[in-house]
Amino acid sequence: MSEKVLVTREIPEAGLRPLEGFDVTVLSERPPERGELLEAVRGASGILATLTEQVDAELMNAAGEDLKVVANLAVGYDNVDLEAARERGVVVTNTPDVLDETTADTAFMLLLAAARRLGEGERIVRSGKWEAWGPKMLTGPDVWGKTLGVVGFGRIAQAMARRASGFGMEVLYTARSRKEDAENELGARYVELDELLRTSDFVSLHTPLTEETTHLIGAGELEKMKPGAVLVNTSRGPVIDEGALADALADGRIFAAGLDVYEEEPTVHPKLLELENVVLAPHIGSASIETRDKMAVLAAENISAVLRGEEPKTPV
Ligand code: NAP
Q1: How high is the pLDDT of residue 132?
Q2: Which end of the chain is less enclosed by CB atoms within 10 A, N or C?
Q3: Hey, CA dihedral for 99, 105, 108, 109, is it positive or negative?
Q4: With bands split at pLDDT 50, 70 and 90, how would you rate the model's confidence at 257?
Q5: How many domains are there within the chain?
């Protein structure tokens, strides 16, 4: 009998092809209820999961002893309990590389939209309240020629830095370790987080979510940012203290923010929803047609490889 693979959400069709020959169950487009998930996972050898599912010891136990691989349809894997997987000999994979450029596009889109007040402008046009072109209407800071500080300097941050250099920006970065090759290639300069916050006109977050990066940007860090600076987050919501960000935006201590991710998705801090100077995207960082196809194929190929006894392409 062929091995069972559970796909926890509907994925692009392309991702089902590498799973031909397995006994595949695809749950619905919406995130499954926990009870439904625990039931559906029984007897699975492979789980293709997304970041809306907590893949923890309970879920792995519910799958049972046949479980060999969890393929997360994301590069971040903060929703997967790696220790529980290790104890059970379950391989965990993610989808790095294929989404770098698309996610950097989203970060740069949010940066431009927040600086140049696109959300506010759209709301004015749609509400019928736009009366005339105005010399002082909806002005925001220039992006070109300014300083971008990226927090984390991995794959997506470096793709962001490449975009910034096309806009004539100076790029500063911080990370746990120096990346000298990337510094030379991209003309970026390493600084401590403090200096990055104090000197950047734009700050973009690109770290994974870990214990260390939870609330990496809180009230104190927002206080250090340049007055009039713009903050962009396409990493994970809890990297920012959302309440503190809402206060800093409401007080006008920073000019604006562009957010793709939130502390309690899909709930957004109520104060943020009321502010004009924040652009809110619904976690669409990697949501291009081509990239979602590539992510689905990569996740499915990882499952297929492990179940055939081969090395997966992108183990965590
Ligand atoms: P990556 O290549 O692993 O890069 C992560 C970077 O973060 C590394 O430079 C790392 O530095 C740095 N870092 C880790 N801990 C840090 C800390 N405590 N302080 C400062 N820097 C720290 O990851 P990636 O592929 O670029 O992805 C980054 C994150 O983006 C993912 O983990 C995911 O959560 C998020 N993401 C979101 C979307 C979306 O849809 N919005 C899409 C894709 C990815 P060291 O090398 O020095 O440790």
Answers
A1: 98
A2: N
A3: negative
A4: very high
A5: 2
Q: In terms of domains, do 11 and 68 share one?
A: yes
247: confidence class by pLDDT, cuts 50, 70, 90 = very high
| 184 and 110 share one domain | yes
Same domain? For 264 and 298 the reply is: no
Specify the pTM. Answer: 0.98
Q: How far is the CA of 1 from the centre of ligand 1 (A)?
A: 40
CATH number of residue 26's parent domain: 3.40.50.720
User: Quick one: 130 and 272 in the same domain?
Assistant: yes
pLDDT per position as a tens digit, 175-227: 999 999 999 999 999 999 999 999 999 999 999 999 999 999 999 999 999 99
Residue 35 CA to ligand 1 center (angstroms) comes to 32
Task: Give me the catalytic one of 9, 163, 206, 236.
Answer: 236
The single residue of 242, 283, 292, 301 carrying the catalytic annotation is 283
Residues 297 and 223 in one domain: no
The pair of three-digit structure tokens given for residue 159, joined into one six-digit string? 């793709």
- Write out the residue range of the structural domain in which residue 59 sits: 4-97+289-307
Q: What is the mean pLDDT of residues 104-131?
A: 98
Q: Are 184 and 200 in contact (CB under 8 A)?
A: no
How far apart are the CA of 257 and the centre of ligand 1, in A? 19
Q: Is there a catalytic annotation at residue 283?
A: yes
Q: What DSSP letter does each residue of 121-178 carry, written as one string?
A: HHHHHHHT---S--TTTT-----TTSEEEEES-SHHHHHHHHHHHHTT-EEEEE-SS-
- Catalytic residue list contains 265: yes
Residue 1 pLDDT more than 80?
no
| Residue 287 alpha carbon, nearest atom of ligand 1 | 40
| Nearest atom in ligand 1 to 157's CA | 26
138 sits in the region (left: phi over 0; alpha: psi -120 to 50; else beta) called: left
Whether residue 122 is contained in a domain is answered as yes
Q: Closest residue (by CA) to atom 12 of ligand 1?
A: 152
Provide the total of helices (H) and of strands (E) in the chain, helices listed first.
12, 12
